[in-house]
Amino acid sequence: MLLCLSFQLHAQKNIYIPKDLVNNDFNNPDSKYAYARMASTDNLVIFWEKPFGTNPAEAPLLDGKPMTWDANNLLQRTESFYKFFSDTLKFVKPGSKAEQYKMMIMVNYSLEGTAYGGDYDQQIGSLWVTPNRIQDKKLNCIAHELGHSFQSQITSDGQGEAWGGSGFFEMTSQWMLWQVNPLWMTDEEYHWKAFMDQTHLAFLSLGNIYHSPYVLEYWSEKRGLPFIAEMFRQGKKGEDPVMTYQRMTGLSQLQFNDEMFDAYRHLITYDMDRVREVAKPYANRFTCKLDTLDNGWMQINKERCPQNYGFNAIRLNIPSPGKKVTVSFKGIAGAEGFNKVNIDKAGWRYGFVGLKKDGTTIYGAAGNQAKRQILFKAPKGEPLAYLWLVVMGAPTEHWMNPDAIPNMSENEHEKTATQADAEWPYQIKIQ
């Protein structure tokens, strides 16, 4: 059975024969991969291994496990992902090798659970999967891995330097998945739950790379959807994504901190156009951990202390209309019990964000000094449903997070994994 869906383009694309398959006779049905076990669209081609038979919907069991999968659904869904990543997110540009070749999906008859995206021979984006990763209808896994295929296509086209460290690649693939499935947060709610316990981690910490595409959502809303792909094209070896972003936007470190803080304040209520409605069930559900001190002061707990560009969201009692809330803030970089890294570059951002009962988000006073009072006055006639204090670690100078150093060997990563992330402890008093 040969499946083929027709999608009209100006010119028929070719099927690339990878170097490691040059001895595979695609015309022979007994070969590992064969044209007799192929399905294609104008932009994609799927090959599946011989044990599946000609119809993967009737594939035999392997060790008692089902190996069947829906080739038509895989084609239709992946083609839609392809078009969005290509035409809207602009991960390929005119002249790309993807205009010459179809991206490739290779399905292995295995129970390993393998799914990874990349490229064949720095020519064409490809991905490799096993049946248990393509048996669901939505194919979230495939959207994520195809994201990696498009990231690899940029370097295959000679347009980027494969910079940024693995973390940003994973974060971007999650963002790409979220673009084509707005319900990703619900489908994979375990990522959101994990992020709720780790908002304090550094922006590029490997601990959050699968959980937190939210800064990229903010960037793409602010700079345009194609901006993320452009970061992959313009990123240079020796940079991390923060450095690339600052260079591309011309932002100083102070301005970058302000923007990251703005992103997180928007995140508290998911006050972003594309996801405002679908993410509403997850708004205003953040948690924090503070230790009580004397005289009404509280101190951030070590377990939740913000690192570089990590944040805390502290829920406040709502004052009566027209009444005020005052927060006294005191940064205590270098305090005992916290990681002391570059404490001469200590910095914070802190400020209010509220949600009115009509669903409108409001942003109150913000500060960046190590010691300061900020004040919020509840609006009259516009009752609040929630009020938050957001605090972010905001170093006055950027340096690479140990997790984010690109092109690092495994031994080097093991060494840096033991290095402490900078922590920016603080105390607050709410009156």
Write a structural description.
It holds the Pfam family DUF6055. InterPro entries: DUF6055. This protein is an alpha+beta fold and 431 residues long. It folds into 3 domains: 3-156, no CATH class; 165-280, no CATH class; 285-407 and 420-430, Jelly Rolls. It has helices spanning 71-88, 140-156, 165-180, 184-187, 189-196, 214-223, 227-234, 241-249, 253-269, 410-417; strands at residues 3-4, 38-40, 44-48, 103-107, 115-120, 124-129, 290-292, 297-300, 311-315, 324-331, 348-356, 361-367, 371-377, 384-393, 426-430. The strands form 3 sheets. Strands 1-2-3-4-6-5 form a 6-stranded mixed beta sheet. Strands 7-8-15-10-13 form a 5-stranded antiparallel beta sheet, with no helix packed on it. Strands 9-14-11-12 form a 4-stranded antiparallel beta sheet, covered by helices on one side. It is elongated, with a radius of gyration of 25 Å. 42% of the residues are buried. Mean pLDDT is 94; it is low at 1-10.
Task: Compose a concise summary of this entry.
InterPro entries: DUF6055. The protein is built from ten helices and 15 strands.
Biggest sheet overview: 6 strands, mixed
Share of helix, binned: 25-40%
Quaternary = single chain
Helix segment count? 10
The outline comes out as: elongated
InterPro entries: DUF6055
Pfam families: DUF6055
Task: List the topology elements.
Elements: E1 3-4, E2 38-40, E3 44-48, H1 71-88, E4 103-107, E5 115-120, E6 124-129, H2 140-156, H3 165-180, H4 184-187, H5 189-196, H6 214-223, H7 227-234, H8 241-249, H9 253-269, E7 290-292, E8 297-300, E9 311-315, E10 324-331, E11 348-356, E12 361-367, E13 371-377, E14 384-393, H10 410-417, E15 426-430
Parallel strand pairs: 1-2, 3-4, 4-6
Antiparallel strand pairs: 2-3, 5-6, 7-8, 8-15, 9-14, 10-13, 10-15, 11-12, 11-14
InterPro entries: DUF6055 (IPR045690)
Pfam families: DUF6055 (PF19527)
